Amino acid sequence: MSRTITRSPQDSPQAVQDGGSVLSHGLKQRHLSMIALGGVIGAGLFVGSGAGIAAAGPAVVLLFAGAGALVMLIMRMLGEMSAARPSTGAFSVHAEEELGTWAGATSGWMYWLMLCAGVAAEATAAGAIMHTWVSFIPAYGWVAIFMAFFCASNLTAVKNFGEFEFWFAAVKVTAIVAFLVLGVLGILGVFGSAPGTSHLTGHGGFFPTGAAGLAAGLLTAVSAFAGLETVTIAAAESDRPSRNVARAVRTAVWRIAVFYIGSMAVVVTLVPWNDPKVAADGPYVTVLDRLGIPAAGTIMQVVVLVALLSAMNANIYGSSRMAYSLVGRGQGPRFLGRVTRGVPVAAVLASCVFGFAAVIAGILWPTTVFAWLLNIAGCSVLVVWSLVCLTQLRMRRRLERENPELLSVRMWGFPYLTWLAFAAILGVFAVMAASAAGRQQLAGTAVVVAALAAAGHLKQRRAVRRVKSPGA
User: Fold this and answer.
1) 388 CB contacts (<8 Å, ≥6 apart)?
2) Torsions phi, psi for 7 (to 5 deg)
């Protein structure tokens, strides 16, 4: 089912349409650079990392280093494929071309589900923060306001998404850099006595909870990186898709190392891993309190709110573009492919409606429907990454045979590091399968994956029959 890749030039508008009207090209290099930069700084880092620290102790640094290394490899694969074949559907389009319709449908709709569930979770958390500040408006009222605002902004022009993400990312980057500077000064003893290695080797040692703790914190570390793929989707709507995505991906490595691994190292060096505040208030608030920074809790609440709103904006954008791409390839209801002034209006509305429906499910059925949805969403990124690995293996070999000039970004150590990344993802699945909660999460995900793959396979078989019997 693979098709020969022939296109010239790479950065032409025709190169970024997926079977429908052409989307606009309102994003600039500065937008993509900040989307890639801000994409690694989310609520998962500011808040969710506390659960990983509480589970694994100081060894959480190794978990984030391992997860970060895996993400670096995935981003390099995505960069190679997207620079050669810019597309709104990104990895979903590549999977369909290389592995078949079933793979494109599975990776695309799983990613859409993950992003829409993320919109619901982020909107709910942002509403709760705003309610603590402006209590006369209920939390669900703030959720409605945020959903309506970002839905409207995504309906107007892609440059609005780019501008919002540019400034959101600027705030997050400034916050994390300031935290790292203050943290290093704290380690050096500027704000009091230097902690040395007391928190790294005391309180049970560097591995205080053993292998069980590492396993419990693993998925937290991996999930914190979900969403980085949006930059390869957004690149298709930039002025020079191939060049811009190549630049964004090339600079992603040091960002991951500095922001995630560096900040985790600062946290576990400055505060005891088993301090209840780490999980309850968040590791960053705990560190700033320890350093005596005034209004640390309020400062971090503002930063977390910005991170949540940034993720909402990016998830609405990414889910709408993925839905548009899937529909343009005949893998969804046609009405979602409607484009107005370069914006897939119907896809944006559908993604927002699904996200808001998930919010309502979180209010009415928090421990059943909503929990099931979040469990599947949490596992979706691993499904997508595994298909990215298999797709890149096929696409790289074909590009080397047919269009080697398109390989402006190349995967390191091909094919060995690709296979290593795939094996690491399988390892995460195996770790999840070792616990009852993980098995339940895997089972729910497997049902959805099987349904999507089966639907894609049936469509693929029908397409083959039409080719063999054109008069039928």
Assistant:
1) 74, 77, 78, 91, 95, 107
2) -160, 145
Cα–Cα distance measured from residue 220 to residue 257, given in angstroms and rounded to the nearest whole number: 17
> Residue 139 contacts by C-beta under 8 Å, 6 or more apart in sequence?
124, 127, 128, 130, 131
Give the separation between CA 373 and CA 16, rounded to whole angstroms: 31
DSSP string over 294-306: TTHHHHHHHHHHH
Place of tokens 């998962």: 44
Q: Is the pLDDT of residue 471 over 70?
A: no
Over residues 109-162, the pLDDT tens digits come to: 999 998 888 888 888 888 988 998 999 999 889 999 999 999 998 888 778 788
16, pLDDT greater than 50: no
> Per-residue pLDDT tens for 430-449?
998 988 888 888 988 999 99
The radius of gyration of the chain's CA atoms, rounded to the nearest angstrom, is 22
Dist CA 84 CA 86 (whole Å):
6
* Token reading at 152: 């409207």
Q: Which residues pair with 238 in a beta bridge?
A: 27
Convert the pLDDT of each residue in 330-371 to its tens digit: 888 888 888 888 888 999 999 999 988 888 888 888 777 777
pLDDT of res. 297: 81
* pLDDT at residue 460 greater than cutoff 80: no
Residues 6+ apart with CB under 8 A from 92: 104, 105, 107, 108, 111, 322, 325, 326
pLDDT for 2 beyond 50: no
Terminal CA-CA length for the chain: 20
The pLDDT of residue 105 is 93
Between 263-270 and 283-290, two packed helices, what is the crossing angle to 10 degrees? 50
The pair of structure tokens assigned to 144 is 């409605």
For residue 83, what are the contacts with CB-CB under 8 A and spacing of at least 6? 10, 242, 243, 245, 246, 249, 406, 407, 408, 409
Please count the other Cβ atoms lying within 10 Å of the Cβ belonging to residue 188: 9
Bridge partners of 343?
Answer: 340
What backbone torsions phi and psi does residue 87 show, to the nearest 5 degrees?
-160, 145
Cβ burial of 173 (10 Å; 0-12, 13-18, 19+) is: middle
CB atoms within 10 A of CB 227: 22
Sign of the torsion formed by the C-alpha atoms of 82, 86, 91 and 96: negative
Least confident range of 58-72, 226-240, 280-294, 300-314: 226-240
